Amino acid sequence: MGIELGRIGIWQHESVFTPEIARELEELGYGAIWLGGSPDGDLVKAEELLDATKTIKVATGIVNIWKDDAVTVAESYKRIEAKHPGRFLLGIGAGHREHTAEFKKPYTALVEYLDALDDAGVPVEGRVLAALGPKVIKLAGDRTAGAHPYLMTPEHTRQAREILGEGPLLAPEQKVVLEADPAKAREIGRPGVQFYLSLVNYTNSLRKLGFTDEDLAGEGSDKLVDALAVHGDAETVARGVTAHIEAGADHVNIQVLNQDPLPVYRALAAVLL
């Protein structure tokens, strides 16, 4: 699997992370920080957080292949790897068809991007691939350290592990809301789910997991929101996270949807780490 990430990491938009937050996550015992929101190819944010910490790993979740060319990203990777060996994982992906004007033939584009990373000296074990469907999950296992699925359920994790087999990294993201009241929790969690219900790659994958058109319509059904944004007290949320481990994940990256994530990081660390 290459870099050892530990069982649990934190995924948030890169703007959330500061050096101070990174140091606290390290002290709490989290294994990795995942930078969301299509980090720039210069990878300056990743380097800043690595500079501020000693042991925690940093990964991108993900660099968009349509936004930054492979040569630029490879040079950034090599700069960071030379400075912080074994602590950075390059996550790449094709993003969303609806949000990228040049988006076409994503599978071919991913293969070509991986070829370019090979040519530029980025090792297989130093990169992972955002993957939802079986074809890209297999590509992730064949050409990278493994797969980084997003907005999926433990059942998807189980299916992904069957495709990958033993060995490749499987590191799904899981949204969480630390809130015991279901109505309040859904109010917090629903916007983080609804955003993706207009994106075909997600809705197609969710239908394959048994969600119906009614579940995916409008703001999303309560059933859908409950599955994709696990909520409850810390112990209940922890069970939702570890369900991915039980289904075959090596590492789960938690995305906290509460307005102030720090108290949630602390509460979950007490029961997960």
CATH topology: TIM Barrel
CATH homologous superfamily (4th level) name? Luciferase-like domain
Quickly name the level 1 CATH class: Alpha Beta
Sheet of most strands: 9 strands, parallel
Shape call: globular
Total count of strands: 11
Average pLDDT rating: 96
**How big a fraction of the residues is strand?**
15-25%
Number of domains: 1
Quickly count the helices. 12
Structural class: alpha/beta
Percent of residues in helices comes to 40-55%
List SSEs in N-to-C order: EHEHEEHEHEHEHEEHHHHEHEH
Rg of Cα set: 17 Å
Measured between the Cα atoms of the first and last residue, the distance is: 21 Å
Protein name: Luciferase-like domain-containing protein
Domain Luciferase-like: 19-118
InterPro entries: Bact_Lucif_Oxidored (IPR050766), Lucif-like_OxRdatse_MSMEG_4141 (IPR019922), Luciferase-like_dom (IPR011251), Luciferase-like_sf (IPR036661)
GO molecular function: oxidoreductase activity, acting on paired donors, with incorporation or reduction of molecular oxygen
Molecular structure report:
InterPro entries: Bact_Lucif_Oxidored (IPR050766), Lucif-like_OxRdatse_MSMEG_4141 (IPR019922), Luciferase-like_dom (IPR011251), Luciferase-like_sf (IPR036661). The chain is of the alpha/beta class. 46% of the residues lie in helices and 16% in strands. The strands form 2 sheets. Strands 1, 2, 3, 4, 5, 6, 9, 10 and 11 form a 9-stranded parallel β-sheet that branches. The radius of gyration is 17 Å and the shape is globular. The mean pLDDT is 96.
Keywords:
single chain, 273 residues, TIM Barrel, two-stranded parallel sheet
